[in-house]
Amino acid sequence: MVTVAVDYKNLQTFCKTVLEKSLPKDEAKNIAISLVDADLLGIHSHGVSRLTDYLVRMEDGLIERETKFTLENESHTTALYDAHNGWGQIVSKAAMENAIDKALNYGTGFVGVKNSNHFGTATYYTRMAAEKGCIGIAMTNGSAIMVPFGSREPSLGTNPLSIAIPAGEGKDPIILDMATSNVARGKIILANKNNESIPEGWAITKDGKQTTDAKEALEGFILPMGPKGSGLAIIIDILSGVLTGSLFGKDIPKMYGDPEPQQLGHFFGAINIESFIGKEDFYKNIDKKVKETVESKPSEGFDRVYMPGEIEMNRKRRREKEGVPLSQDIFNELEATGKKYGVEITDYLQVAAK
Fold it and tell me: Using CA atoms, how far apart are residues 191 and 126, in angstroms rounded to an integer?
């Protein structure tokens, strides 16, 4: 596959400039940073490949041009926001900031969001908590594109979960970030855009048959990560949708194909470590846990053992120096979207073939 490498800061500026044609400047900036952050980590399914898709939904009236979220309920340790169909990245940042503030003041903070839209990567928000010395938790439901284990009838989103744990001053946090499916649907969308096949086990056709065709998979359904992934997806749907009073299960419109606002629910948490144990002791034990993991002898076929999130954070630092690789198809899509909004991509990105 032909790729081009682009400077991440210039890519942020391009996306921000395009978004500013329709959104307030502060919102455009935050969304652009979130999108490029995903590409830096290597989560291209949630990166700038989503820019065009988001804007199409906005132009169709399915996402508001300004995120005017409101605080519906609040206690010392909990809160609930109504996003009023605004951008998921904007309300989610505010929700996690509130959860962190509550954790620092009262030990824990849990904040829900209802009537929202796709919020990007869950790790973007849990890292916010880890940077403040808190354990961060983030999850969201999604439209029913995944079947429960053993079913051929979809009633679940891929419903991702992220947990980030601080590891001490100057050290990367330990980050779990996972979909409850065998793969995030965004990877199938990206494969379809790049005219690539997908591995067997990712999805089934609408008739319940295995497929390696990305287009067929998008018309069909995602497979859960076995019975455990299915069960976890159900719990996340309850916490994100049922508990917040947002839509859940079969009632959530599809991001691609249904001309209705999705009304997604999100759920965020922050835990102040010092409400349980002194930071010095916690980080000392985290060091021990990291060492016993990464210094363990690798099994056949592996060079070494990694902590959760370690590969992605290493990749992020490398790409900040070397550039973000984009497929030629995605670059062309960004170029066309830029032209639509009067923004020339070549004014921002100097590309080099790789």
Answer: 27
Summarize pLDDT for 304-330 with one digit per residue, the tens: 999 999 999 999 999 999 999 999 999
Domain count, the chain: 3
Q: Are residues 44 and 21 in the same domain?
A: yes
Residue from 44, 46, 118, 266 carrying the catalytic annotation: 118
Q: Which residues contact 276 (CB under 8 A, 6 or more apart)?
A: 282
Q: Are residues 71 and 201 in the same domain?
A: no
Got the DSSP string for 337-350? HHHHTT--GGGT--
Report the alpha-carbon distance of residue 113 to residue 290 in Å, rounded: 33
How buried is 277 (Cβ within 10 angstroms: 0-12 exposed, 13-18 middle, 19+ buried)? exposed
Q: Which domain holds residue 234?
A: 67-181+224-321
Residues 169 and 241 reside in one and the same domain: yes
Same domain, 147 and 241: yes
* CA–CA separation, 263 and 184 (whole Å): 20
Per-residue pLDDT tens for 270-287? 999 999 999 999 999 999
CATH number of the domain that 140 lies in? 3.30.1370.60
Domain match, 171 and 299 both: yes
Name the one residue in this structure whose structure tokens are 């419903």.
159
The CA distance from 180 to 163, in Å, is 14
Is the domain of 38 the same as that of 100?
Answer: no
Q: Do residues 150 and 252 share a domain? A: yes
Specify whether 46 is catalytic: no
In the chain, the N- to C-terminal Cα span, in Å, equals 10
Q: Is there a single domain that holds both residue 229 and residue 246?
A: yes
